[in-house]
Write a sequence for this structure.
């Protein structure tokens, strides 16, 4: 199965000039979703890790099923104001300006190895911020797993030193 055929491109969303990769077309087809989850699970198995960190929001579409398959603990990495408990925050660079993400302060214990899962790697800012947040609370980043990579945005360069794997690449 060619997974690329199951990703819908929406031009100029959410703003002019962006080619938005709509992955809801993966979720709506059980055979396609199964293949994506199976591939993510297979790749995740190769890492030595304790917990999965799921990135808001479309990381939530994929990470929980991988965590379920591998019987691993899962914690959310969210935009500010969404988590009810005490949190730790991290600022990160966006294309224009800054974003903030946070986790519960007890989500990651010192020395715990975390596998990060998200839907798409673009400029890498969100993922880099998540790596920094895990390290800020004393955890370690075992690796990063994503469904799609927009290679032309060179997100990997920002993530030098981290293991990053993606299933589908756009050049
Ligand atoms: P970045 O921090 O630039 O790597 O952006 C990654 C985050 O933004 C991911 O969580 C994606 O869900 C979202 N994103 C960025 N660009 C796109 C795009 N062209 N299509 C779909 N999602 C995108």
């Amino acid at each position: 199965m060619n997974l690329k055929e199951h990703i819908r491109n929406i031009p100029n969303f959410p703003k002019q000039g962006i080619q938005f990769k709509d992955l809801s077309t993966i979720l709506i087809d059980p055979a396609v979703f199964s293949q994506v989850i199976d591939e993510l699970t297979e790749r995740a198995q190769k890492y030595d890790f304790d917990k999965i960190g799921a990135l808001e929001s479309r990381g939530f579409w994929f990470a929980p099923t991988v965590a379920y398959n591998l019987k691993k603990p899962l914690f959310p990495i969210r935009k500010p104001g969404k988590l009810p408990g005490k949190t730790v925050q991290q600022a990160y660079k966006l294309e224009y300006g800054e974003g903030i993400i946070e986790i519960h302060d007890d989500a990651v214990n010192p020395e715990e190895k975390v596998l990060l899962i998200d839907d798409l790697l673009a400029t890498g800012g969100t993922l880099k911020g998540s790596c920094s947040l895990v390290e800020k609370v004393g955890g370690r980043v075992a690796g990063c797993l994503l469904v799609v990579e927009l290679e032309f945005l060179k997100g990997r360069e920002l993530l030098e030193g981290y293991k990053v794997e993606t299933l589908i690449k756009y050049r």
User: Anything to note?
Assistant: The domain at 47-170 is CATH 3.40.50.2020 (Rossmann fold).
